[in-house]
Automatic annotation (TrEMBL):
Residues 2-127 form the VOC domain. This is VOC family protein. Pfam families: Glyoxalase. The lineage of its organism: Bacteria, Pseudomonadati, Pseudomonadota, Betaproteobacteria, Burkholderiales.
Length: 128
């Protein structure tokens, strides 16, 4: 058994696609119309082969409430790993990404939260 898909709820799939590809540098794997939404997945050129991030539309009111509650509490929806957090932080900041602080050493990791423009906080992490 292996993980092939991980999902993140987004408030707008077009906005999510622009952010995750144009800013983070992910590539589109699937973009399939499904009624008023799409089956929309992206992959990281630096990530494990076969792993896709599903940009899930929020079409269910409790899902929106859950996403909002996480965001307001400062809890990340997911984490992305990097080998060089300082250079990634600088690169993304220059592209206009909004961070909640600066990379901070937390023992086994160095991490910093950023906003994905789609209602989520993402934890950018460099393992020690």
């Amino acid at each position: 058994m292996r993980i092939g898909l991980a999902g993140i709820m987004v408030d707008d799939q077009n906005k999510a696609l622009a952010f995750y590809t144009g800013v983070l540098g992910f590539t589109v794997k699937n973009d399939i119309p499904m009624g008023s939404f799409r089956w929309l997945t992206v992959t990281s050129p630096e990530g494990a082969e076969g792993v896709e991030l599903v940009l899930e539309p929020i079409g269910f009111p409790p899902a929106h409430a859950y996403q909002s509650a996480l965001y307001e509490a400062g809890i990340p929806a997911t984490a992305f790993l990097t080998d060089d957090i300082q250079s990634e932080y600088t690169r993304l900041k220059e592209l206009g990404v909004v961070f909640r602080g600066e990379p901070t050493n937390m023992g086994p990791i160095t991490g910093v939260l950023f906003e994905d423009t789609c209602g989520n906080l993402i934890n950018l992490v460099q393992p020690s």
